[in-house]
Amino acid sequence: MSERTIALVTGANKGIGYEIAAGLGALGWSVGVGARDDQRRKTAVERLCAAGVDAFGVPLDVTDDASATAAARLIEDQAGHLDVLVNNAAITGGTPQEPTRVDPATIRTVMETNVIGVIRVTNAMMPLLRRSASPRIVNMSSSVGSLARQSGPAREQTAGPVAVAYAPSKTFLNAVTLQYARELTGTNILINVGCPGYVATDLNGFRGVRTPEQGAAIAIKLATLPDDGPTGQFFDDAGVVPW
Ligand SMILES: NC(=O)c1ccc[n+]([C@@H]2O[C@H](COP(=O)([O-])OP(=O)(O)OC[C@H]3O[C@@H](n4cnc5c(N)ncnc54)[C@H](OP(=O)(O)O)[C@@H]3O)[C@@H](O)[C@H]2O)c1
Fold first, then answer.
1. Share of the chain above pLDDT 70, in %
2. What is the distance between the alpha carbons of residues 218 and 224, in angstroms, rounded to a whole number?
3. How many angstroms is it from 15 CA to the middle of ligand 1?
4. Of the N and C termini of the chain, which has fewer Cβ atoms inside 10 Å?
5. Would residue 69 be called left, alpha or beta, if left means φ above 0 and alpha means ψ between -120 and 50 degrees?
6. Which residue has its alpha carbon closest to ligand 1 atom 2?
7. Is 186 left (phi over 0), alpha (psi -120 to 50) or beta?
């Protein structure tokens, strides 16, 4: 079995995922660049390698069972184990997302990627993660999924826009993460949720105020937690985010 630290980042061809891959690569880790499009994945791997990262491409559409299974097989062949999985890939689902106007198909599509995709990929990778000495799973969520913020007095400032597919998909992802943390109690696997803040990426038409590198910082922190670190928690750069 390889002694290198191996990470997989889903949706790593651009945005925050790309910078998570770059940040983990800067630690000297070998990083699988999970991406569904061949050309976008190839370009990202080339950029990362040119920057000195030990990066390799992992074809991965998180909505596709066969793709997740093939990705796990590729990592098994390449490295024999997986130390860190960052479930970063997500979509907003576009508009409209006012609850009274939404197309139910939008909800299904967003849930398939943002929630079921995470479960699909995590479970495909679980046998490889169990072979690691210090497995970490980081689920990239958003504070817009915080029910506390959406129902609190400052919600107009802190809860993001009304988005009945995207925001609840992150609430669901947070709840799913807690279920994993409970099942995995007593194992060495730590699983947490991170919010990157409001980052300028394709996801929001580059309206965010933080850089993708700043957004990646919380994922890198949660990917490198010590063995006695937290599990089943929700963090951003400022600390614990209320559920
Ligand atoms: N940007 C923000 O302000 C912000 C705030 C809070 C949370 N987040 C979260 O941070 C994470 C990264 O977001 P981002 O802003 O970097 O978004 P982004 O620039 O739109 O990147 C999203 C990534 O996910 C990939 N993806 C989407 N569907 C996929 C699928 N079915 N299979 C595989 N990959 C798929 C995209 O690949 P393609 O290039 O092929 O589409 C892309 O690589 C997401 O979980 C997002 O919800 C972002």
1. 99
2. 10
3. 7
4. N
5. alpha
6. 199
7. left
Cα distance between residue 28 and residue 52, in whole Å:
9
Tokens of residue 88, six digits: 């970063």
Residue 223, pLDDT > 70, answer: yes
Residue 129 CA, ligand 1 centroid: distance in Å: 23
Helix (H, G, I), strand (E, B) or coil at 199: strand
CA of 37 to the centre of ligand 1 (A): 13
pTM of this structure: 0.98
Q: For 242, which DSSP code?
A: P
- Locate the DSSP E strands across the chain: 6-9, 30-35, 54-59, 84-87, 136-140, 190-194, 234-236, 239-240
Give the residues surrounding ligand 1 with Cβ less than 6 Å away. Answer: 10-11, 13-17, 35-37, 40, 60-63, 88-91, 113, 140, 142, 195-196, 198-199, 201-204, 208
Give residue 140 CA to ligand 1 midpoint distance, Å.
Answer: 9
Strand bridging mode 136-140 / 84-87: parallel
Tens of pLDDT, residues 97-123: 999 999 999 999 999 999 999 999 999
Q: Which atom of ligand 1 is nearest to the CA of 203?
A: 20
Which residue minimizes the CA distance to atom 11 of ligand 1? 88
**Alpha carbon 4 to chain centroid distance?**
21
Q: Whose CA is nearest to atom 36 of ligand 1?
A: 11
Please state, in angstroms and rounded to a whole number, the distance separating the CA atoms of residues 135 and 127.
11
On the question of pLDDT at 156 being above 80, the answer is: no
- 1 C-alpha vs ligand 1 centroid, how far in Å? 31
